[in-house]
Write a structure and sequence with these properties.
Length: 257
């Protein structure tokens, strides 16, 4: 049986763009209204905004198009050992991310991304949004919908296009450098595992590690990754482990749709 028959590629792209714009505009208006009413904006309001303008429109799309979690989005169980592999992938991608941020921040003289770190006071909020809501919504939209609707053009072409679009929606050259790569990694993990749970968990772990408060990162670490040559071993290790991951999951999921 064909999957996602109730939505075509143009509708998929339209809905993804709508969800992203709805969230950004809705969040801006919501926070501006709170400010106009002299209401102190805290993390609770930001969390409410993400649920209202990001999570709920996604849920509405799935309900409207009668997209099922298991058959269409392929949210099916994966073995425990696969979770361990995904944690390793998330860890290996961290120095690559930080290295690209550090390098491009220096080249472009833009340290807005590099200097932004979460504090302990915002840790709970960032874990709920960045490590739960965002991975779920983005993986459903980009891997569960967009990637599956473009697979007919060729797996690797679809992975490349997905990574480019995923990077572009972040609207920043520095952020694009690693979200482009991470988007492709999530696609390949989904393609290999045949389960959307895999990229959702990978995305959640990756974002959770990114949200670790600043004083848990050492100066020596950032000095190390500021040299582009030092992230090459991590890229090599990541590619090796992706290859190992692909071979491992193929043995476990060959009988899965």
């Amino acid at each position: 049986m064909k999957t996602l028959e109730n939505i075509n590629i143009k509708q998929t792209i339209k809905y993804i763009l709508f969800i992203i714009l709805f969230f950004r505009i809705g969040n801006l208006v919501f926070i501006s209204l709170l400010g106009a009413m002299n209401i102190q904006v805290n993390y609770v309001y930001y969390l409410a905004s993400e649920i209202i303008f990001y999570l709920m429109p996604t849920y509405y799309l799935l309900r409207k198009k009668k997209i099922t979690w298991k058959r269409d989005l392929k949210i099916v169980k994966i073995p425990i050992k696969i979770y361990i592999h995904l944690i390793i992938l998330a860890i290996l991608f961290q120095p690559i991310t930080h290295g690209l941020i550090t390098l491009l921040s220096e080249l472009l003289n833009d340290h807005s991304i590099q200097n932004y770190k979460y504090s302990f006071s915002s840790l709970i909020y960032s874990m709920i949004t960045s490590a739960m809501i965002t991975p779920l919504v983005e993986e459903v939209c980009f891997r569960g919908l967009l990637f599956q609707k473009t697979k007919h053009i060729g797996i690797y072409k679809s992975i490349l296009i997905n990574g480019i679009i995923f990077g572009l929606i972040h609207q920043n050259v520095i952020v694009f450098s690693f979200t482009f790569l991470f988007g492709m990694l999530c696609c390949y993990v989904f393609y290999s595992s045949k389960s959307l749970i895999a990229p959702i968990f990978l995305h959640a772990m990756y974002n959770a590690l990114q949200s670790i408060p600043d004083n848990n990162h050492t100066v020596a670490y950032y000095q190390f990754i500021s040299n582009p040559l030092n992230i090459i071993p991590f890229i090599f290790l990541l590619l090796l482990f992706v290859y190992y991951f692909s071979n491992t999951v193929n043995k476990n999921f060959t009988m899965m749709a």
